[in-house]
Specification:
The chain is built from 10 helices and 10 strands. With 285 residues, the protein is an alpha/beta fold.
Length: 285
């Protein structure tokens, strides 16, 4: 059995010994970049390997010309493939990503592995809390050095769009942009991460945390489908964005769970869009 969206803590516990498995700890804090590594050192799932959002799951913020591409642009594709091989990931590896924030960072790794064509990756539903909820311990031991994997760069299983496509969409709307940030930031209020508050004109707001139940696990597929169909009619014509291309992946995962595959990611998201004063900004709902 393979897992390509979510895996429960119960399933992971029962099947870990039967899977060709690499578990990846994606914990992070946007305000404190050291928090994830500190949490990993304090206790992680046994044999899990740590990846840092800023170091492995993001690329340089500016290109050679100095143009800003957002706070967490995608890294060089080949460098990412090499980093995943170094974790021991091969083409036949089942990857399980987890964090301590309802999947908001683990979903980024889920999307990025699909970006390089690796389908067998799932997010641990409920993260660390769900694992501990089974009475399972965390470990402070580092896993043995990984045997490098043979992961290949294959055709992408996901889509992305750039800022130029969304600028063109303003005059000829064919895409529905969906913003994963909290409602107040979408309205342009309480902006603390970026210099300008507001949202891309025409965007709708779907806070990524609305994909979750009170216990931090995802809502079931039926409920997610019902909710998302009020936001997007055709997922193939939808673009997910957020502040910097991270929590937008959570919405993409929720769409996949709901059976509404095909939406695109705008990696630069609001941090890139708002960096150019020539780009229009909307506020309010």
């Amino acid at each position: 059995m393979i897992y390509q969206t979510l895996i429960s803590a119960t399933e992971l516990k029962a099947r870990a010994q039967y899977l060709n498995l690499v578990i990846v700890d994606c914990r992070h804090d946007l305000v404190n970049p050291n928090a994830g590594r500190d949490a990993y050192a304090a206790g992680h799932l046994p044999l899990a390997r740590f990846v840092h959002l800023d170091e492995l799951l993001s690329g340089p913020k500016t290109d050679a010309s100095g143009r800003f591409h957002g706070r967490h642009p995608l890294p060089d594709r080949q460098q990412f493939v090499q980093a995943m091989r170094a974790l021991g990931i091969s083409n036949d590896t089942q990857v399980v990503a987890y964090d301590g924030h309802g999947g908001m960072y683990a979903a980024r790794l889920w999307w990025m592995l699909r970006w390089i064509g690796h389908a067998d990756v799932a997010v641990l539903d409920g993260g660390v809390a769900a694992w501990q909820g089974l009475g399972e311990p965390l470990s402070t031991e580092l896993p043995p050095a990984a045997t490098p994997g043979n992961l290949q760069d294959l055709s992408a299983l996901v889509k992305s769009v750039d800022v130029q496509a969304l600028l063109a969409n303003l005059s000829t709307p064919t895409l529905q942009v969906v913003d994963a940030r909290a409602p107040d930031r979408f309205r342009g209020e309480n902006e603390t991460m970026d210099a300008v508050g507001g949202h891309i004109p025409g965007a709708k707001n779907r806070f990524f945390k609305d994909n979750l139940q009170a216990d931090g696990r995802f809502k079931d597929a039926t409920q997610l489908r019902q909710e998302w169909l009020t936001v997007v009619g055709d997922p193939q014509a939808a673009v997910m964005q957020c502040g910097s291309g991270v929590t937008a992946c959570h919405n993409l995962l929720a769409l996949e769970v709901a059976g509404l595959a095909g939406a695109s990611l705008y990696p630069g998201s609001w941090s890139e869009w708002s960096s150019d004063p020539a780009r229009p900004v909307a506020t309010g709902n």
